[in-house]
Design goal:
Low-confidence stretches: none
Order of helices and strands: HHHHHHHHHHHH
Largest sheet: none
Distance between the termini: 39 Å
Radius of gyration: 18 Å
Structural class: mainly alpha
Shape: globular
Amino acid sequence: MQASLLTTLLLPLALGVIMLGLGLGLTIDDFRRVARYPRAVLTGLALQTAVLPWVALGLALAFGLPPELAVGLMLLAASPGGATANIYSHLARGDVALNITLTAVNSVLCLVTLPLILNLSLEFFLGAGQYVPPPVRKIVEVAVIIVLPVAIGMTVRAFAPGFAARMEKPIRVLSVVVLALLIAAAVAQEWDTLLAYFAAVGLACLLFNLASMGVGYAAPLALKLPKRQAIAIAMEIGIHNGTLAIFVALNVLGNATMSVPAAVYSLMMFFTAAGFALWVNRGREPVPA
């Protein structure tokens, strides 16, 4: 997996446009509601930081992954959710305000947790410590892609509610079309990588993805949180920021092999998240136009 025009320009630009559309459907009251019910935020953060790394470690050991691929899987587990999680949550009718809140808080938190988990993983699997600095620049980029477009969209809604309401359906359609195009482009670009490494790490990545979404959905429901919040948490911890993991592997660790789990996972999650969205909305009435 290597940086390209798709990952460095087209993907961030497309996600920024879609996040602008999500902002058109949000108000300050949506975030106030999240603040009034902090259990959902705490549940999502606890699952991300305290549960998923252990799941990844168990899968790495169970499948006997080579050390560099095992570290790559741990790096993926330590990465927060990204803008794509917010998009899928929107399409699945989850609590998007909760997603944006979790992404923001978790992205800041990972400045501490990601280097800690990654350094421990390097020591455990490779037997030699290597200091990994906090990925501050990449976190700032994520914030710009997510927070700024959403803020612009919310401002438009506040001052032109009629325009925002008219744009809701076209933006939803645009989200689906853009995601489909990005998936097709990513699969075509990384087809050789997928074929080369799928046998070694593909099943472990798939099981980690399914476990992440499964735990993210079941745990909130067990805690009596609303279904919309359970969907949001499942998407948040099931759709990791693979771009961040790839960036750290290539530019901080200087190891292309460690980026492979994130590359494979990032392509798989498009399809599993779409299937999950269809499953949780089975039998529900279509969203009104």
